[in-house]
Amino acid sequence: MNLHIAKWGNSLAVRIPMEYIRRTGLKEGDTVQASLSADCTMTIRAKPWDRKAFTAELSQTRQSMKLGTSVMDELRGES
Question: What is the pLDDT of residues 22-31, one digit of tens each?
Answer without folding.
Answer: 998 899 988 8
